[in-house]
């Protein structure tokens, strides 16, 4: 903690000095609207901890995978269990990856057939992403089960004009990528069709320095169709998305946990959404009906022989009503019915929720909510949440939130048994959490911002596998607390600096530090945008030391650089260098990471 406090003091001094430098640059303030909080509100009036990354920032920072974009959020720990198609996991404030709810255009996409119900981010790149919001802390009042640690909200692109965009990339490790977008905008509606194909020869997922030399390739193809039409003041939106990935990976090893082997998996993921919106009572009540579905099918092969397969799907029916009495008196309410199934096993949840945002005094905005989830096979669960923003001055505000979370045991956890057990554990209970955070915000128009947040989060009845029981049971208590710091500064008309730093102290009920979570992590970056043809960025990511099952991981830093050059109004070329200083590191013990590598790309717009 002493080292952290020293770092914190230096960080604040540095940020204040940057603020004084940037104060000479004036520009127009842009209001950022939070979309994934049920009640749309400006970021400045939103009391919960949130990180937002737009498609323009994603492009300028050279981020090509969704998991790398999410890792830019304070308080988030991401892992790639092997490069190029390995398992990509996201942990928020020390919560497990299965306690992060993932939404794509409002569709829950967590894998119903996986043991913990987590989502594998490694198949999802940024080519079709408009915006990412990471909502940190227990959020079950907003979004129900799985949202113990937080919510990752991914919004896909929509057609903005009639256009054809083609992108091609080639690079290290046999990288080949083709991406095509076709946009159509008319009086009838707008439609965007996207096709993407990526392949790599890859590297060995098991670390090469441990004697593993077999390359593990990766290939993925995705197709997406998104449309929006309006008929008689009724808005109809739809999304169809399909991703198929073919990944080579390695076998279990007793020494490091992994070693070379002829293993392969084929994953197919389908996402569907249909949303109907219309207003009643003179535009005073906005009604939204939606049907969402996500299906994930996974087949695993050893020596080209099928060894295991899993199919899971989630269906969600949702109604939400929104109304407002004034600018800061807004209400959202609704109900949901969700059903998850794996083969013949099913799990269903019926939910009711009510949210209210109001302004009791001039400079205070309060948001409160309550939700009840009736879980078939388990007792019903009521969760509550309250958040507030108090504006001390035009530039300074205090934010705080308290919330509850829960997660229903997955179908796998309620049905799996082994090791001499005669049946699955029928006494397993949902996981539960409470979280609290308190934050300080300082903003100077859009020239400088500084954000400091203290958080504390407790998880009760965490589910883990027990060999003595031969199944899953509630055996863990997890306590996490720490700080999150983020700042951005407009150094000049062309240069922007961004920094984030996280200190996460997570321990279990025995007082032992949680594995695979660094206490310290952060990111520093500089972006350059000129009025001419050149733009680019450089960023340095830091990950502190960790403990893991097979051995400890050293701290590491990695630098990436991106340069874009606009040839004309219709095309640009770009190149990237990742791991610029050829750092030798591991994200997960025993798994290798790429050495210095690069890519070259060209994008053409018609």
Q: For the report, how would you describe the main beta sheet?
A: 22 strands, antiparallel, barrel
Oligomer: single chain
The CATH topology name reads: Maltoporin, Chain A
Count every beta strand, where a strand is a DSSP E run of 2 or more residues.
Answer: 31
What is the overall number of helices?
Answer: 5
- Going by CATH, the homologous superfamily would be TonB-dependent receptor, beta-barrel domain
Helix and strand content put the structural class at mainly beta
- Over all CA atoms, what is the radius of gyration? 24 Å
Question: What would you say about this model in short?
Answer:
The chain is 7% helix and 58% strand. The protein has 606 residues and is mainly β. The longest helix is centred in the N-terminal third of the chain and has 21 residues.
């Amino acid at each position: 903690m002493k080292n952290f406090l020293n770092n914190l003091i230096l960080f604040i001094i540095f940020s204040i000095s940057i603020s004084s430098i940037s104060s000479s640059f004036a520009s127009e303030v842009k209001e950022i609207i939070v979309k994934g909080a049920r009640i749309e509100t400006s970021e400045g009036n939103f009391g919960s901890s949130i990180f937002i990354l737009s498609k323009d920032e994603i492009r300028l920072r050279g981020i090509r995978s969704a998991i790398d974009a999410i890792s830019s959020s304070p308080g988030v720990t991401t892992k790639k269990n092997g490069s190029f198609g390995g398992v990509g996991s996201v942990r928020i404030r020390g919560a497990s990856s299965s306690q992060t709810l993932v939404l794509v255009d409002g569709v829950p996409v967590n894998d119903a057939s996986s043991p913990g119900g987590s989502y594998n981010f490694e198949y999802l790149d940024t080519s079709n992403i408009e915006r990412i919001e990471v909502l940190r802390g227990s959020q079950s009042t907003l979004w129900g089960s799985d949202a113990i640690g937080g919510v990752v909200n991914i919004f896909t692109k929509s057609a903005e004009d009639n256009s054809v965009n083609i992108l091609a990339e080639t690079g290290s490790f046999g990288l080949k990528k083709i991406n095509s977008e076709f946009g159509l905008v008319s009086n009838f509606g707008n439609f965007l069709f996207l096709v993407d194909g990526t392949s790599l020869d890859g590297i060995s997922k098991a670390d090469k320095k441990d004697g593993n030399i077999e390359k593990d390739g990766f290939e993925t193809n995705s197709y997406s169709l998104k449309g929006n039409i309006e008929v008689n003041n009724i808005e109809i939106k739809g999304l169809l998305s399909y991703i198929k990935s073919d990944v080579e990976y390695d076998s279990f090893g007793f020494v490091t946990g992994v070693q070379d082997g002829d293993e392969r998996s084929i994953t197919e993921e389908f996402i569907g959404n249909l949303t109907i919106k219309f207003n009643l009572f003179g535009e005073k009540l906005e009604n939204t009906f939606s049907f969402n579905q996500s299906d994930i099918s996974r087949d695993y092969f050893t020596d080209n022989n099928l060894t295991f397969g899993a199919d899971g799907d989630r269906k969600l029916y949702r109604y939400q009503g929104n109304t407002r009495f004034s600018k800061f008196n807004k209400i959202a309410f609704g109900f949901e019915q969700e059903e998850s199934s794996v083969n013949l096993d099913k799990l269903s949840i019926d939910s009711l929720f009510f949210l209210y945002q109001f302004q009791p005094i001039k400079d205070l905005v309060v948001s409160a909510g309550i939700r009840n989830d009736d879980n078939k096979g388990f007792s019903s669960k009521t969760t509550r949440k309250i958040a507030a923003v108090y504006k001390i001055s035009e530039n300074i505000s205090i934010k705080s939130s308290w919330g509850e979370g829960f997660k229903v045991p997955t179908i796998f956890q309620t049905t799996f048994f082994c090791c001499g057990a005669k049946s699955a554990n029928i006494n397993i209970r949902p996981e539960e959490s409470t979280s609290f955070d308190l934050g300080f915000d300082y903003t100077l128009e859009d020239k400088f911002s500084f954000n400091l947040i203290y958080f504390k989060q407790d998880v009760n009845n965490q589910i883990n596998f027990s060999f003595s029981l031969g199944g899953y049971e509630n055996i863990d208590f997890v306590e996490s607390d720490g700080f999150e710091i983020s700042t951005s500064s407009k150094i000049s008309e062309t240069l922007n600096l961004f920094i984030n730093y996280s200190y996460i102290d997570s321990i279990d009920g025995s007082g032992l530090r949680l594995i695979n979570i660094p206490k310290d992590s952060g990111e520093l970056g500089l972006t350059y945008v000129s009025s001419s043809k050149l733009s680019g960025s450089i960023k340095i990511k830091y990950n502190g030391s960790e403990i893991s099952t097979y051995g400890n991981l050293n701290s590491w830093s990695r630098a990436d650089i991106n340069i874009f050059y606009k040839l004309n109004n219709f095309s640009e070329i770009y190149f990237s260098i990742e791991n610029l200083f050829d750092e030798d590191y591991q994200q997960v013990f025993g798994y290798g990471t790429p050495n210095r590598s690069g890519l070259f790309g060209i994008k053409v717009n018609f």
